[in-house]
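Structural prep section.
Before we set up the soaks we want a predicted structure of the protein with iron/sulfur cluster in place, mainly to decide which crystallisation condition to try first. Input record follows.
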Amino acid sequence: MADELEHKFEVEIKEREGRQKLPDSVKDELKASGMMDEKGKLKLKGVSPKMLKRMKQEYVECPILKEDTHFIQCFVCPNFQSRVMGKVLCKGGKL
Ligand code: SF4
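Run finished without errors. Recording the tokens verbatim:
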């Protein structure tokens, strides 16, 4: 199909027990763009509390950063295109 989104990687979304910490640099970015309040509460448009809870336990093995990356960080990454069937479609650009 011609209108299929272009992406370079399909990255599997993995899950682990309990919450994972977001790096401070990512928190600062989220705050600067209004997606996190001063208390550290996430405010992502169109994401339900239930979905958010799940997202907090997820991570990807990012092919660009070459390390396990919190799904929230991935979700707001410029390379993030969409989430389809447990995978992130990633544009694969340099970060
Ligand atoms: S969208 Fe960003 S964080 Fe997610 S896999 Fe791609 S480069 Fe890594």
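Observations: Residues 24-32 form the longest helix (9 residues).
Flagged for discussion at group meeting.
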